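Quick question, first post here. What does this chain look like in 3D?
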Amino acid sequence: MEKSKLSSIEFHFCQKVKVYVGVDAGGVPNMTTVPTADLTDANTAHVGSGDLRVLHPVFRVYGQITSFSGPIVTVKVFEDNVLVREVLETKGEGRVLVVDGGGSLRCALVGGNLAQIAYSNGWAGIVVNGCVRDVDEINACGIGVRALASNPLKSNKKRTGEKNVPVYVGGTFIREGEWLYADNDGILISRFELSN
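> Answer (accepted):
Ran it through. C-alpha cells below.
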C-alpha cells in the first residue's frame, strides 16, 4: 500500500514538470522532432559517409515521449548506476543520455526515480544498452526512454564506470556531443544536428 501511494505522488510530480524534447543549434529548447525516416531520406549522403548511423533495432520504447532528440552525453557502466544518477541530476538542457551498460540483462540501470529526475532536470531522453525497471512509473513520465528490456533487480552502487567517453551501442560508436534522434521507427546517431 505504501508503495502505491509513493507511485501516484511520483506520477503526479512527473506530469507537472516540463520536458524538453530537443534543442536548436543555439541551445534553445524545441518541442518538435522530425521523423527519423524523413531524416534518413533527406540525408542519404550522410548515411553513406557514416556521418549518420542507424542503431540496431533492438531497443524497446518506454515513457510517454516516443519521439525525442538532442545532443548526446555518454556514460559507460556495468551493472552499476551511480554515475547514471550523477549525470541525470545535472541540468539536461534538452540533451540525451546514452548509457552503455554492456548489454547486461541481469539488472536495471534506470528506474522510475531516475526517469523522474531526468524529467525534472530537462533531459530529452535516455537510451540504455541494458535494462530498466519500474516500467509503469517510467511510462507515466513525459520522457523518452529506450532500453533492451526490463528487469526488476536493482543495480550495484559502487560508482564504477566512466563519463563522457566514446561508447559502442547498437552496432556503432557514439561520441559525446553527437546528436541522437529517436522515434517509433528507430534511433539515429549523427555527427552533427540534422534538418530535413
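The chain has six helices and 14 strands.
The chain has one domain: 2-190.
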